[in-house]
């Protein structure tokens, strides 16, 4: 998925009209519930609420799957490493050569998997419904130091600059039949790709700094606030969270 896909979905989502504070509170509650509650069935219910929220917010399912792909790799690797036992093996469970899986380790690995998936989906609820521009504006209202907000804003802009450089250089390599030779050649192409992207990004950041200096920039990089009206979260969202908390307390 393109790095701008999350931001594009947030800009187009009808949930952008909902106050940022409500979406931050929802995402934070989802993450904390996924972190502190039991994996079954609470984390499954948290994931269901997050998926339902993304569906109501009109986020395409393929985009959610694409956004979950990279975190899923780390989640699965972590769950597997917590499940497998290498070497000495004691207690009930299964064993294949030097690898063994205890029943307790299986429960631990499954719990880590459910915790991480539910928490990641909770974060995506905020990321895919709230553009960074709105989030930075909300932070200004909370009187966060302006210097911190400016650093975050510049880093956010430079991420897209670096990604654009990566796409352009990679397209140029592919047009020259890049990535089709032996492994040694492809490693060399990757090194040249990283070097070219670093240089282009550095030059772009230098031009940005020069442009701000020429314009006598001394204040904040202000952006226009959203004027799409105000609306509240659907009533089923707090009702669903209350139900999840009830299940969490009942299964303690």
TrEMBL record:
Pfam families: CbiQ
Primary location class: membrane
Transmembrane recorded as keyword: yes
Membrane topology: Multi-pass membrane protein
Keyword Nuclease set for record: no
Stretches that traverse the bilayer: 24-57, 64-86, 106-130, 233-251
NCBIfam families according to UniProt: ECF_T_CbiQ
Name recorded for this polypeptide: Cobalt ECF transporter T component CbiQ
Native source organism of the sequence: Arachnia rubra
């Amino acid at each position: 998925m393109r790095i701008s896909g999350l931001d594009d979905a947030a800009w187009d989502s009808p949930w952008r009209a909902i106050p940022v504070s409500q979406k931050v509170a929802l995402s934070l509650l989802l993450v904390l519930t996924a972190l502190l509650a039991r994996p079954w069935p609470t984390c499954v219910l948290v994931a269901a609420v997050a998926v339902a929220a993304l569906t109501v917010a009109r986020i395409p399912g393929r985009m959610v799957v694409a956004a979950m792909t990279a975190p899923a790799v780390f989640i699965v690797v972590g769950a597997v490493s917590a499940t497998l036992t290498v070497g000495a093996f004691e207690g009930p469970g299964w064993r294949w050569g030097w690898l063994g899986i205890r029943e307790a380790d299986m429960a631990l690995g499954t719990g880590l998997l459910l915790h991480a998936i539910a928490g990641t989906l909770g974060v995506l609820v905020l990321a895919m419904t709230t553009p960074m521009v709105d989030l930075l504006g909300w932070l200004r209202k909370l009187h966060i130091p302006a210097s911190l907000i400016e650093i975050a804003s510049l880093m956010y802009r430079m991420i897209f600059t670096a990604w654009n450089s990566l796409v352009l250089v990679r397209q140029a390599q592919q047009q020259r039949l890049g990535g089709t030779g032996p492994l040694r050649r492809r490693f060399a192409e990757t090194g040249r790709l990283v070097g070219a992207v670093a240089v282009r990004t550095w030059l772009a950041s230098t031009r940005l700094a020069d442009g701000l200096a020429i314009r006598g920039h001394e204040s904040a990089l202000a952006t226009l606030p959203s004027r799409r009206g105000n609306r509240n979260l659907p009533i089923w969202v707090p009702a669903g969270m209350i139900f999840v908390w009830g299940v969490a307390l009942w299964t303690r």
